[in-house]
Each structure stands twice: as C-alpha cells, then as structure tokens.
Specification:
The protein is mainly α. It has 2 domains: 5-376, no CATH class; 411-686, Rossmann fold. Helices cover 55% and strands 5% of the residues. It has helices at residues 5-23, 34-55, 61-90, 93-107, 111-119, 125-129, 135-158, 163-184, 186-191, 197-210, 226-246, 259-273, 278-283, 286-293, 295-315, 320-346, 353-376, 403-409, 453-469, 496-513, 531-545, 569-576, 592-606, 646-650, 653-661, and strands spanning 390-391, 417-418, 436-438, 447-451, 473-477, 517-521, 551-555, 612-615, 631-632, 635-636. It has a 6-stranded mixed sheet with strand order 3-5-4-6-7-8, with helices on both faces. A two-stranded parallel sheet has the order 1-2. It has a two-stranded antiparallel sheet with strand order 9-10. Strand 4 (447-451), helix 19 and strand 5 (473-477) form a beta-alpha-beta unit. Helix 1 packs parallel to helix 15, helix 2 runs parallel beside helix 7 (135-158) and helix 8 (163-184) runs antiparallel to helix 10 (197-210). The termini are far apart. Residues 674-692 have low confidence and may be disordered.
C-alpha cells in the first residue's frame, strides 16, 4: 500500500497532545484523547492494508502477524525491561515488584486487563503513578489486531457488498455499549476492547468506503470538490482541538464525549483521502512526519520516565512538575534513540529476518525472566528495625464482606501490617442483623458507628472504651462503602437491590434502637468533586439520622499523606532514611483543602441540627511545620497514606472517651466542639493538650 505522509502528521498531533497532557494535565486538559485519535487511525490503516493485500492476492495471515510482531514487540519489550530495572534501582523495593507484575501482563498484550483489575480508574492515584499505565491503549490495539483480520476476511468472502454496513452496525453496537458502560461500569468501559471497538471500526468503515472493490459504488463516489474537502478537514481539526482543550477527566469519558476526537479524526482522514488539500500539505511537513514516524516509540518511552521523574521528585521533596518536565525530556530522547536503534532495524523484512526474530525471542525471554525474578523478590519494609510492628484491627469490625479487603491486605502498602484473622464463619451480610453488636450495657446499642474503612480504623478503640464504660455498641461500618444512603454495587453488594437493602437496614436499626450517640466516620475527601454536592448530600443524610439519636458526632478526617496510597509507608520512610537517621517530613495530599471544607460544612450544619457535634480527630496529626505527624518514637501512627494504625487511633483515645462517656449529658464536653473557629490551617496551639 502506498505510503501517505499526512497520516504520520496525524500521529504527530496525537502523540504531542498525549505528551503535553502527561507532563502537565493543566496545560492541555483533554490531551489524553490523542489515544482516541490513534484508535481511529489504526482501524483505518489496518483495514486499508488488509483490503489492499486481499485485492492484490498478496494477503497472508502469517505475514500480517509476523509484521505486527516485528513492528510492535521489540521496542515494547525493551521499554518494559528498562522500566523494571529503573524501578529496581531508583525506587523503594516493592515498587519494582508491582511494576514487574504489570510488565508481564504488558508483554502478553493484557495490560488493560491488569490495570482494570489491579489499578482501577484511569484518573485514580494507583493508575496515575504506575509507569506502564499508558500501555492499556496498546493492549486494546493489539487485541484488535489479533481478532479483526479474521473477522474482516470472513466478511469479505461472505458478503463483500455489505462489508461497510456490517462495520457501521458493529460500531453502533459497540458505541451503545460504551455509552451504557460509561455510566454504569466506568472502569472496564474505559479500558476494554468491546467498548472501544467502535473507535477502530469507524476508521475501518472509512477504509472500506475508500476501496472501490467493497464500497458498492465506483471510486468516483468518494471524490469531492476542493471546497468541501477543505471544509471537512477544517471541521475535523476544530473538533479534535476542541476535545484537546475542553474535555476533562471524569466518569463521563469515553461515552458520548469520545465522539469529539473520533469523529474529528474521521473527518480529517476523509479530507486527506479525498485528495490533496492545505491540510494534507500541512500534515506532510517534515517535522510532523518525523515525529509521526517515531510516535509509537515516543508513546512507549515518555510515560515511564515522566512517572519516574515525578516519583523521585516527591520522594526527595521537590516539586512534581520539575520531575515531570525532566522525565518527559528524557523520555523523548530515549524514544528517539529506541526508534533509530531498535524499532527500525528489527522491523526490516529482507535478509537476516530469522536472526531478527531470534533477537526478538531472546528479548521476550529476558524480559520475562527479569520480571519473574523481580516479582519473587520479597522486600522488607523496615530492614533496620527502626519502628515497632504496625497493626490494624479494623476488619474484624466490618459488617460486610471481608473478601474484598483481603486483596488490599496482601497489597504492597500493607505487606508489613499485622491484620488479625477474620473468623471463617463470619457472615458477609452482618448488617442485616445490626452489624457487629457488643452488648456491654443495655439490651440494645447505645452507641452506633457508621462509615467506611475510616470508621473501622477507630472501631477497636471505640469498642474498648464502650466495654470499659459498660455501654452497648454496634458497628454498621463496611469497607469501601460510602456512608451516605446512595450505595451501588461493589464487592460488598452483588446487586443494586442488595446495596439498597444495606441502606434500608441501617435506617431500620437506627429507628429501632434510637441510640444515645451515632458516630459518622468516612473518608470525606472522596466526595471532593463538588463542595455544593457534598453539602447537599450531607444535609439530606443528617435529616435521616439526627431524629433518631440524642447526639450525632461528625468525625473530622485525618490528613492523607501525599502518594501514601501507592507505596508502603514504612518502606518509603526507611528508603529516604538511607543517608540520614532523621525521619523525613511527609505532607498532605492535594485534597487537604476539601478536608478542611468538610469540617466547615459540618460546623455550618451544626447550626441547623442541634444534636450535631464535631469531633476534631484530625488535629493531633499535624506538626508545627505543617507536615503530617505520622510517626511517634518507634510507633507508626498510619497503616497507609490515609488510615490510622492501632497506635494512631490510640492518640485520640481521650477525645473518643470524652464523647462516649458524655453522650447522655445535656451539653457536650469541652473536648467535643459544637462550633469552633474555622482555622484553614490547624496549628500546634489549637491542638488538644498532649497531642503535639
């Protein structure tokens, strides 16, 4: 098939958008949609090549896949291998293990499945900090290459005149799945081929329309006037540009929003295919063509080095943007070198091809062996025994399914934390019978704990205080489940009806027990998308809670440590203490402002609800320097970046004891505030005595 320089120009635009977005999302908020441009272009090119080979009786499945291997595999293997080695050399020990796990899925073309299962949403911390997250899109394309040629050839043989209709129908079905999945199953919809198929198929449909053998009409039907061709090209450029500038991350993507980059690319391809134009000449300029030729290599290399740069910047207390820019520059250089020294030489099909395949095979084996070795290396978080063992007893108080939490317990961030075993015969739906209930006093619970894992981290402490004071208590807290009455399917609830039953059960028990105190404890910053929405939801929740309790305590969220959810906290601290015995300063993450706002919102609601009180459990975990107080002597106060350990919970024992023992009093004790001054930054002087 004849080479078309403007197609490399389109690749250049796509990779530049992605590169800018990955260096700084604020610089080009929709730059990630460059991946969607690649999808449409890939569908167009692969279909054009297959149809060209089929019509000229030169198409061979074996040759097609051999060419794909030569084109895609060598550079990908080198990227994965170097990434694993970089993480082993420059990052905390467990980071290389997790990167190696992802790397093995990547070389098997299943990176998108690994990310969906192990890292979660594209805009979550885990995915953002993984050096191989970007390979999800390569996995989608490679899975497409695996199944589509056979589907296309079969359709060509069976119904050649309806080929375009079949591709359009398939695209519509996949798009409908994509729209539905975006709002109901956002993570798999973003990553998996069935809900991305339509983007590749619209490029394939255009390729069929361009081919006179299968379009159903003479080739002249594809011809268009110069004015129309220019207008279509301009419309395509404007549509893609609008996507780059205005599409923002969130749960609404891909869905309808993905039409901007995909239809824009479709229009540009239609304009270029229709003949020469100003746009095709612009896209054929030498700088864009050179960037486009190296785009695959640039895509492979830029993200691991940006991620490494950002991680090293954070670990060495430098601004992330410095690491991001430096990593991006090194990534472009590495991608250019890999394109010239690896990708181009190994994709040749002339003499020596067998040797080139032998090199590729050796590269695959080497990467797999190095990856397996890194996976089986068991890191030690605290090799010098600087700190006492860290414990977390919260899961023993969960009123829901403990199986989902088991995966987290064995993850990198918790591998050195002691979790007591959960009884094998414990029901997965204890919430139906009131949750974990301990009748230390009256015949029904006088204190009730509601919330997520943040409620669980205080549960042993609260249970201990209630036992000492002979106060019956119930724990209706469930891991990974928001406190509000709007729950959906998660690993605790297999259906929407079960999630609604959980909410109804909590209402039922509160109405029946009418406890003296209800403790509301959650990771409030998970609702940080909208302050107004949080306030409205919280107020509605209080209207349903406050009438059934004498006192309702809003427990302020402790500060969350920057990047603490991705790494093992003890490991990071020990890693940074290699050159000094001084405990490093760790700071709050980007949601600190919203955590303060959540307290302000609760204080404002206390004016409307007379039995709402604020428990400032967060104040003891700030230092005079404004950092997070995560360690005290040999005790680690945090189990991970946002959950307190048992030692951390003990730090606020007096606060909870005062609230529990005074919950039947007419006025709140001094340690529990009804309304307090809204200090945007907690200071040492505002902390409770003994919590400095």
């Amino acid at each position: 098939m004849r080479y078309s320089p403007p197609l490399d120009g389109i690749r250049a635009i796509a990779i530049l958008a992605v590169l800018i977005f990955h260096i700084s999302a604020n610089a080009l908020c929709g730059g990630f949609t460059g991946v969607d441009v690649f999808f449409v272009l890939s569908g167009f090119l692969i279909t054009s090549n297959i149809l060209y080979g089929y019509c000229s009786e030169q198409f061979s499945f074996s040759e097609f896949y051999l060419r794909r291997v030569q084109r895609l595999v060598p550079n990908s293997l080198l990227t994965v291998l170097v990434t694993i080695l970089l993480w082993a050399l420059f990052m905390p020990p467990s980071s290389a293990r997790q990167t190696a796990q992802h790397g093995l899925w990547t070389i098997l073309n299943l990176s998108n499945v690994f990310i969906w299962k192990d890292l979660g949403g594209y805009w979550g911390n885990a995915a953002e900090q993984s050096p191989l997250t970007h390979t999800w899109s390569l996995a989608v394309e490679e899975q497409f290459y695996l199944i589509f040629p056979a589907m296309l050839v079969f359709a060509v043989k069976m119904c050649p005149k309806r080929l375009k209709t079949l591709l359009i129908a398939g695209s519509i079905i996949s798009f409908a799945l994509c729209v539905y999945g975006t709002y109901h199953f956002s993570t798999p919809t973003f990553y998996l081929l069935p809900t991305r198929f339509w983007e590749l198929l619209i490029g394939a449909a255009l390729a069929v329309h361009r081919n006179p053998e299968f379009a159903g009409n003479p080739a002249s039907r594809f011809a268009m006037g110069d004015g129309l061709r220019e207008a279509i090209g301009a419309a395509g450029v404007l549509t893609i540009t609008a996507g780059f500038l205005f599409i923002r991350n969130g749960s609404s993507f891909p869905g309808y929003v993905a039409l901007a980059p995909t239809l824009g690319t479709f229009l540009i391809l239609a304009s270029i295919a229709g003949g020469s134009s100003r746009l095709s000449r612009l896209l054929s300029t030498r700088p864009l063509v050179l960037i486009g030729k190296a785009s695959y290599s640039l895509y492979l290399w830029h993200w691991p080095l940006i991620t490494l740069g950002k991680a090293l910047a954070v670990l060495h207390a430098a601004p992330q943007i410095f690491g991001s820019v430096a990593g991006g520059a090194v990534g472009v250089l590495a991608g250019t070198l890999a394109y010239a020294a690896v990708e181009n030489p190994l994709r040749r099909r002339g003499p020596g091809r067998s040797l080139r395949f032998a090199i590729i095979g050796a590269g695959f084996a080497t990467t797999a062996i190095v990856g397996a070795a890194a996976i089986h290396h068991r890191p030690v978080a605290d090799p010098n025994h600087r700190f006492a063992p860290t414990e977390f007893f919260g899961e023993t108080y969960s009123a829901g399914n403990a199986e989902g939490a088991a995966d987290a317990i064995h993850s990198t961030r918790y591998y050195d934390v002691y979790f007591p075993p959960v009884p094998a015969d414990r029901r997965k739906d204890l919430w139906r019978s009131g949750g974990v209930v301990h009748l230390y006093g009256s015949t029904h619970p006088q204190a009730v704990v509601l919330g997520s894992s943040h409620a669980l981290m205080y549960s042993r402490l609260i249970d201990d205080i209630c036992r000492e004071s002979h106060i019956s208590v119930a724990f209706l807290a469930v891991d990974a489940t928001p406190i509000f009455f709007d729950n959906t399917v998660n690993y605790n609830f297999t259906s929407a009806s079960e999630a609604r039953a959980f909410d109804n059960a909590r209402r039922h028990w509160l109405k029946q027990w009418r406890p003296n105190a209800v403790f509301l404890i959650d990771r409030w910053d998970t609702f940080s998308d909208s302050k107004r929405s949080f306030q409205s939801t919280f107020e509605d929740f209080l209207k349903q809670i406050c009438p059934y309790a004498d006192k309702v305590f809003f427990v302020a969220q402790v500060p969350a440590i920057q990047d603490g959810d991705q790494y093992n906290l003890r490991e990071i601290v020990n890693w940074r203490m290699r050159k000094s015995d001084q405990v490093p300063l760790l700071y709050s993450d980007a949601n600190e402002a919203f955590r303060r706002q959540s307290v302000s919102i609760a204080e404002a609601e206390a004016g409307q609800f007379g039995n709402l009180f604020i428990l400032r459990a967060d104040l003891p975990f700030y230092t005079a320097q404004g950092s997070v107080e995560y360690v005290s002597g040999r005790s680690f106060l945090y189990a991970d970046g946002n959950h307190l350990s048992e030692a951390g919970a003990e730090r606020v024992r007096d606060l909870f004891r005062t609230a529990i023992n005074g919950m039947t009093a007419n006025s709140p004790p001094d340690a529990v505030t009804k309304q307090r001054a809204k200090n945007e930054t907690p200071s040492v002087s505002s902390m409770a005595p003994g919590h400095r």
